[in-house]
Hints:
The structure holds 2 protein chains of 2 kinds.
Chain A: E1 3-6, E2 10-14, E3 19-26, E4 30-38, E5 45-51, E6 56-59, E7 62-67, E8 72-77, E9 86-94, E10 101-103, E11 107-112
Parallel strand pairs in A: 2-11
Antiparallel strand pairs in A: 1-3, 3-8, 4-5, 4-9, 6-7, 7-8, 9-10, 9-11
Chain B: E1 4-7, E2 10-13, E3 19-25, E4 32-38, E5 45-51, E6 57-58, E7 67-73, E8 76-81, E9 90-97, E10 105-106, E11 110-114
Parallel strand pairs in B: 2-11
Antiparallel strand pairs in B: 1-3, 3-8, 4-5, 4-9, 5-6, 7-8, 9-10, 9-11
Amino acid sequence: SQKIEQNSEALNIQEGKTATLTCNYTNYSPAYLQWYRQDPGRGPVFLLLIRENEKEKRKERLKVTFDTTLKQSLFHITASQPADSATYLCALLIYNQGGKLIFGQGTELSVKP
Amino acid sequence: GAVVSQHPSRVICKSGTSVKIECRSLDFQATTMFWYRQFPKQSLMLMATSNEGSKATYEQGVEKDKFLINHASLTLSTLTVTSAHPEDSSFYICSGLTRGWSEQFFGPGTRLTVL
């Protein structure tokens, strides 16, 4: 069966440390993998997109890796801040599905000062 | 990034009534709009995909006669929850996509509570 799983429901880290979130998928052939941030009671906000032929993408303190052999993406936030506390969702965009996204269940990140 | 708005942001209604939620793309033309539902502590579940001027495509298990979707223009899609019941209480989120883009832009969501 097709599944997208994110590593844990909650991740607690200390300010200044690097947060690493995992997204694994099975039985999909995605064109892109995307990461979104969602704050409570709000819609998701797009952060980064990585294509199937890319290994790594960076944006400021964010880094995403994509391993299509392992069927895994890692999402890193370096020098984390309390303002980074939110739920982070990974999503797969599948070929020939009209832009449809399949979301993981999300990982709630809490950064303590 | 592109902006998507939703109205209302919050609605409370009685069981058996119908509720309409609007989704607007403010600064781009959304050739495709998506409607999602999100229960507490769960991920977004796609309900339906609508292309401007066409009938919506519903995901398996989503009743098309209960969740009416209209995408009459490139900037507006509406979701009507007909004969709402308490189990329809959820967070409804729309998103817009335009041709050639690979990222969807999401609205802020509508919290529906059915009493």
